[in-house]
């Protein structure tokens, strides 16, 4: 997912802070500023991330952010009206999963 986001995010700027980690897991707060590819609208996403590690690699990565805030920025009026609904949240998840599957297939992953 990260590789896809970075390759597609031509104008992406990332900052991070509040890093905490040990051999089992970690946390970080990060901010992403970018243009959402489907609408070209500017987005600032403030994210709290949690990680679990195994054998020195990331086993799980979970991001938490305000989806309604993100959808208002990324999708405009539709996001403002429907961003709080499970319907739109599931639609965005499905679209992201499909995009990731296509990205992986194009690279033979």
TrEMBL record:
InterPro entries: NTF2-like_dom_sf. This is Nuclear transport factor 2 family protein. It comes from Hymenobacter cellulosilyticus. The lineage of its organism: Bacteria, Pseudomonadati, Bacteroidota, Cytophagia, Cytophagales.
């Amino acid at each position: 997912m990260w590789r896809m986001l970075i390759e597609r995010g031509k104008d992406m700027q990332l900052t991070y802070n509040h890093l905490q980690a040990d051999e089992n897991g970690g946390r970080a707060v990060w901010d992403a500023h970018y243009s959402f590819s489907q609408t070209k609208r500017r987005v600032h996403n403030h994210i709290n991330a949690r990680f679990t590690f195994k054998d020195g690699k990331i086993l799980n990565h979970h991001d938490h952010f305000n989806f309604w805030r993100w959808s208002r920025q990324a999708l405009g009026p539709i996001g403002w009206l429907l961003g709080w609904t499970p319907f739109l949240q599931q639609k965005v998840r499905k679209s992201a999963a499909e995009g990731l599957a296509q990205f992986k297939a194009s690279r033979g992953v």
